[in-house]
Amino acid sequence: MTISSISSDWQQVLATEFEQPYFQKLQDFLATERQTAEIFPAEADVFAAFNLTPYDRVNVLLLGQDPYHDTNQAHGLCFSVNPGIKVPPSLVNIYKELHADLGCEIPNHGYLVNWAQQGILMLNAVLTVRAHTPNSHKDKGWEKFTDAVISKVNQKTAPVIFVLWGAYAQKKLKLIDTSRHIVIQSAHPSPLSARNGFFGSKPFSAINTALNSIDKPQINWQLAKTI
């Protein structure tokens, strides 16, 4: 994992993190892992969320947990998969709610780059995983790094909308100044919990209403039907 693969604006914002001993230890761990196991996403995609959404363009932060761990799925954005890969169950439910909320047509893919390009930082709390082994890179340093990312976004002078789906994401509420920023939270879209408060929560219209209230451009949620 090379820090040079992260965009220059984020390099500046996160410079002090890259110098921390924990981050060096994390880099060493990942170098060893890549020599001995298959790691997702590909090294070039680890910082994709940052490269697609520059710091000064972050208007929304959507927080996921762990990258997808099956072949060719993960490419550095939470909830998103590469073109040609079957849409995972949580994203199927996200699409169902998006259709119910805004009437958006459901695409035949799970590639969410278009959302990231509109100012949504699509951040996982952990940025890498060993193939077919969920949570295998948990507690190795990524959480400390992504907590710092959330804190840096929290420091932005303009309000940001933080979207926290599920109990894991909602633990990050303590990093957010809710007097300055807007938080939208509900149950997680996973099949295990979607019916406990994700379905019917209308997060997409809520995000656009919030963006409108702070004079930021609304998200065009409609993805290309096919890619």
The CATH topology turns out to be Uracil-DNA Glycosylase, subunit E
Order of helices and strands: HHHEHEHHEEHEHEH
Rounded mean pLDDT score: 96
- Morphology call: globular
Question: Descriptors for this entry?
Answer:
9 helices, two-stranded antiparallel ribbon, Uracil-DNA Glycosylase, subunit E, alpha/beta, 227 residues
Topology:
Blueprint: H1 8-13, H2 15-18, H3 21-36, E1 39-40, H4 48-52, E2 60-64, H5 89-102, H6 113-116, E3 120-124, E4 129-130, H7 142-154, E5 161-165, H8 167-170, E6 182-186, H9 203-213
Parallel strand pairs: 2-3, 2-5, 5-6
Antiparallel strand pairs: 1-4
Describe this structure as you would to a colleague.
This is Uracil-DNA glycosylase. Excises uracil residues from the DNA which can arise as a result of misincorporation of dUMP residues by DNA polymerase or due to deamination of cytosine. It comes from Chamaesiphon minutus (strain ATCC 27169 / PCC 6605). It is found in: Cytoplasm. One of its GO terms (molecular function) is uracil DNA N-glycosylase activity. Helix content is 34%, strand content 11%. It has a four-stranded parallel beta sheet with strand order 3-2-5-6, sandwiched between helices. The protein has one domain: 3-Layer(aba) Sandwich (Uracil-DNA Glycosylase, subunit E), CATH 3.40.470.10. It has 227 residues and is of the alpha/beta class. The model has no long low-confidence stretch (mean pLDDT 96). The chain has helices at residues 8-13, 15-18, 21-36, 48-52, 89-102, 113-116, 142-154, 167-170, 203-213, and strands at 39-40, 60-64, 120-124, 129-130, 161-165, 182-186. Helix 8 (167-170) links the parallel strand 5 (161-165) and strand 6 (182-186). The chain is globular.
